[in-house]
Every structure is written in C-alpha cells, then in structure tokens.
Amino acid sequence: ETGVTQTPRHLVMGMTNKKSLKCEQHLGHNAMYWYKQSAKKPLELMFVYNFKEQTENNSVPSRFSPECPNSSHLFLHLHTLQPEDSALYLCASSRNLGEETQYFGPGTRLLVL
Amino acid sequence: DQQVKQNSPSLSVQEGRISILNCDYTNSMFDYFLWYKKYPAEGPTFLISISSIKDKNEDGRFTVFLNKSAKHLSLHIVPSQPGDSAVYFCAASASTGNNRKLIWGLGTSLAVNP
Fold first, then answer.
1. Which of B2, B89, B102 comes nearest A100 by C-beta?
2. CB atoms < 10 A from the CB of A38, how many?
C-alpha cells in the first residue's frame, strides 16, 4: 500500500469549473511535489513544497494554484482550465527537499472539456 | 530538447530471459540516476539508483550500469518475470544549490511474456 494517497482518482471538468485535487502523505516526509504527465511527454515538475513552504514554481500558469496547509497535505486548486491541461497529475513526497527518492501517489486523471 | 531519452517506447521479452532497458542523457552535470517502475493506475515507484561515482549498482535481479563517457545507462533485469511487466522510467538529477530536480525520460513499456 502506498504511503501517498490522492483524491479524486478521476475528474472531468468544464473550462469554467473550479475543482481541487488533494494529496496526503503518511510517511512523515517534509517535501511534497506536484507533477504533470501529459501524453507523449515526460513527467513535468510543477510545484515543490518544503515544510509547507513553496520552494519552486516551474512557470506554471496561474490557473493552477497549490496549497500546502501542513507537511502532510497538498492541494492543487484548478480554475478556468483549458483542454490541453488534461493530463495525469501526480503528487509525490520525499523525506527531505532535494532527495531524489520520491514516493508517488496513484495520480488524478483529469479531463477538461 | 529532452535531456533524458529513452528511445525504445516498448520492449517484449520471454520470461526467464534478460530485459535490458536503455537510457541516454545529454547533460554532463547529472550526477545521480534513478529507475522507477509504474504499473497501470498506480504512481511510479522507486526501483534502483546509481551515483555518478559508480559504474554499477546491483539489487537482486536488477542491475543498473552507468557509462559516463557515453552518457548512457541501462537497467538489466534477470531473470525477467511476468510481474516485471510495467513502464520503466529513467530519471536524472544534478545538484543546484540545496535543491535537486529530477528530469525524466518518456518511459519504456516492458512486457514479459510467460
């Protein structure tokens, strides 16, 4: 069983909707990450949090808004998305920032209509 | 331009034989390399890694080889088992201050046939 959970697993939304993705890690890790995996593209790092402080925003459009209320929870708030934002969104954590061994959740498969 | 390339999108091998998955990189600053495995409907899971100061790391049936001069690494699985059927991602990182970012390949889908 993975120590990183994500909800929902699947999401269909219109371009005017507002939705949120949730990630929770039960591993006691200090760093959390959001990744995007689009078809035929490698995993793209979106945001990095360390001790609930954002340390990296990889030029992500403002229609994606992350929130990290504590070291165990990470949210990705979605607003006025575009069809090209349809992808698999993966959350990951690591014991400390900069550690390459990251533990991933199962992902949320997002479809924007 | 992709810095980490997995040129074979798929690979099929017979159970019991060796699986060899390849990965090439372009950035000479990369000093740590990892392989992750991903089953359908699950997130990637860490498999094995290697530091640039080594040329081989072995863990049970899995061995990673690093050829720095060729900027090439490979993952060997022997003997291959049907449960090894998954997508394998190669990832690389370089130290940038106190932060390390993983750069990922596109993945190779391995099918191990009984």
1. B102
2. 13
- Chain B contact for A106 (CB, 8 A cutoff): yes
pLDDT in tens, B35-80: 999 998 899 999 999 999 999 999 999 999 999 999 999 999 999 9
Instruction: Please report the DSSP string for B43-84 in residue order.
Output: --EEEEEEETT-SEEEETTEEEEEETTTTEEEEEESS--GGG
Option in A48, A101, A104 nearest B43 (CB): A104
Dihedral class, residue B16 (left if φ above 0, else alpha if ψ from -120 to 50, else beta): left
Q: Which amino acid is at B84?
A: D
> A46 exposed, middle or buried (CB, 10 Å; 0-12, 13-18, 19+)?
buried
Answer yes or no: is pLDDT of B96 > 80: no
